[in-house]
Amino acid sequence: MQSPGRVGTEQILFTRGVPAVEALPAHLIGECMQAVLDAPNGWSILQYGHNGGYLPLRQLLGEQYQVSAEQILVGNGSLHLQDLLAAMLVKPGDVVFVEQPSYDRAIKTFRRRGAKVIGIPLEHDGIDLKALEQAIARQTPVFLYVIPDFQNPAGVTTTAEKRQALVELAERYHFWLVEDVPYRTLRYSGTSLPLLRDLRPERVLTLSSYSKLISPALRVGYLVGPADIVKALTKLAEETILAPVLPTQAAVVEFYKRGYFATNLEQLKQLYAPRLQAIIAALKQYLPNVPLAEPEGGFFVSITLPEQSNSTNLLPRAQEIGLTLSNGHDFFADPLDESEDIASLGARFVRLPFCALTPAQIEEGVRRLATLF
Q1: HEC letters along 3-33
Q2: What is residue 157's three-state secondary structure?
Q3: Which fold has domain 12-25+262-370?
Q4: Interval 356-369: pLDDT, tens
């Protein structure tokens, strides 16, 4: 942690949503890696393996999601699986819907695979259903990509009513719902809502990873879906990566077996909850007139500055006062309505990851941010 005397002069990074350094359980991961290598058949995780992923991990996830191991594909992080999914489902010119704003890397991934990515406006309680129905009336998407819990970048959680409406629309118009839930278990208050797949599993493909829950460098993500989709994706995985990274996948299983996952998750919540409260309090203090969706968990809070705000050259001006921000434009897909001023929205949109910063750094960062407008 930075000393209080340095907070006023250091560079504060409101950029990537990375775990706090002190949250990375290096010693516990080391124990688990050594244990799986020392096991009687430890050599097997150093060999080529089944491209669906390490079977004990698929079985463990199957128990958690109440599906068979054949419905689980483990990959090198969830973005890897998003890319495989887009490669399999999308043909050049196909339409994919995302929330607007949405995860910047997902937008880039879908575009790279040839999709026209259209953003459906996001409200403080989830996607705008009226706008979504209007978009579907124009063209049915191959899939709608949503982050229903503590959305990246907005921090929004989709209500139970809107979740039900989404699965009903997917069923009625025959498109996939791709739900990305890497932050779901990082809930610091409130009550968990059903997964989309809990409501209509035959229409939902669920993605998640251990990047925020154990370590990003393990590169362990997974997809849950119908067996035929998983089988086809597994074949595609074999053609692209040849073999899974078994040592880290085995270490995740050992992490569970030793009871580390549950205790580590509680420690993450205890570390991150005060940071969430710190950023909400700072935004209310320094930017009291800016609307704010207050998340109950996750990694991100975001704000969209009023139209009259001075957002010109925001990033370089922020850099001059020791504040590093992400480019807000990157979180926006093509507009649903050509009258939408995406350029203006992107310029005024600020994503604020808070987990890797101390409460003192968060307050100072928001204070500096407020001086720019």
Answers
A1: CCCCCCCCCEEECCCCCCHHHCCHHHHHHHH
A2: coil
A3: Aspartate Aminotransferase, domain 1 (3.90.1150)
A4: 999 999 999 999 99
